[in-house]
Design goal:
Number of helices: 9
Strand order of the largest sheet: 1-2-3-4-5-6-7
Structural class: alpha/beta
Number of domains: 2
Helix content: 25-40%
Largest sheet: 7 strands, parallel
Radius of gyration: 22 Å
Strand content: 5-15%
């Protein structure tokens, strides 16, 4: 979500690392064009008056908003259902990662939480896709094994999902342009196998990490029932101004995704000021001193008014591209009766 301009010494698509010989000159040029009328100057020491008006004209339809349910917080969330219900979530995204011990117990808790909140569940399923030595593999028998285990856990928990998103473990981490992509099952084979495991349920996904990773490994839109990625406003800097300014990048992220995803439903998966997962390192940074810092697991602004302002500014940026359809089929739209 970086709205600032930055560049590397040379494009990452070129081979790296590389050597610059002594005396060799590397030249770059940036041209900036500014359009529009400059505002009237304010006298030194004077105070400019800013007036903000909210118009009554409807610009676009707000997207359906939901909540995330990390497996480790499900039991605690069940003790706060009255508070969570006040948010009136349109859906609940359930993260499931067998590498972290998630299984039938967690899925059953998610089912109970969704029932109490009266909203459908969306499964965010991590598939290990690792061979017997723990290495990424493109052997299709491996993801089929992982999907069979997932389906067995879902059946044991007697839980149903309105949508299912799947991602191989190797796609949770960043791969820079010019690098060798780790082995992974082909998209077509992976999503066909997922549809076999969850017949009649929309299956999609692509990146549980950020737009950057989705843009570098673009899926074929015809293979997906929906496309998704998450967001993080604080990767390269952790100050308040950066956090707010990075909202300006959202319309361009959405427009770029639409350019290769076409008209399929477009989901922003669980997104927060804090970093839910770290594609660029082992884990998000712990924050024992509760400070403002990039890539924190927990950020103090989540509990402050500036955090509320950031969240309020996030969904309307989607409307900057015009009204978008509901991500739910009409028959399954959780707001149809509201």
């Amino acid at each position: 979500m970086d709205a600032s301009y930055k560049t590397y010494v040379r494009p990452l698509a070129k081979p790296w690392p590389y050597t610059i010989a002594g005396g060799e000159r590397v030249s770059q040029r940036v041209t900036l064009e500014v359009r529009g009328e400059a505002p009237s100057a304010v006298a030194a020491g004077g105070a400019a008056t800013v007036t903000i008006r909210v118009g009554e004209r409807q610009v676009a339809r707000m997207p359906a908003l939901g909540l995330a349910a990390p497996a480790e917080h499900l039991a605690g969330a069940l003790g706060r259902t009255e508070l969570l219900a006040r948010a009136r979530p349109a859906f609940l995204v359930v993260h499931h990662d067998p590498r972290r011990g998630h299984g039938t117990t967690e899925l059953a808790l998610a089912k109970e939480l969704g029932g109490r909140l009266g909203c459908p569940l969306v499964l965010e399923a991590v598939l290990p896709c690792l061979d017997s030595e723990g290495r990424p593999t493109d052997d299709l028998a491996i993801p089929r094994r992982d999907l069979a285990a997932l389906r067995a856990a879902v059946d044991a928990a007697r839980v149903g999902f309105a949508r299912v998103a799947v991602s191989p473990v190797c796609d949770l981490k960043c791969t820079l342009p010019g690098s060798v992509w780790p082995k992974a099952p082909g998209w077509r084979e992976l999503f066909e196998a997922a549809r076999e495991a969850f017949p009649g349920v929309p299956v999609g996904g692509r990146m549980f990490s950020y737009f950057t990773e989705l843009n570098r490994k673009r899926p074929a839109a015809e293979l997906l029932d929906f496309v998704c990625h998450t967001g993080c406003p604080l990767v390269h800097a952790g100050d308040d101004a950066t956090m707010m300014e990075n909202l300006e990048a959202l319309p361009w992220e959405y427009a770029t995704t639409r350019s290769f995803a076409g008209s399929i439903p477009y989901w922003i998966f669980p997104t927060a000021i804090a970093m839910r997962d770290n594609p660029y390192g082992r884990v998000p940074a712990e924050n024992p001193n509760n400070i403002r810092l990039a890539m924190n697991r927990v950020d103090p602004r989540e509990r402050a008014l500036i955090g509320a302002a950031w969240y309020a500014g996030y969904p309307p940026m989607r409307a900057a591209l015009g009204s978008m359809p509901s991500p739910w089929p009409r028959s399954a739209d959780p707001r149809a009766s509201s």
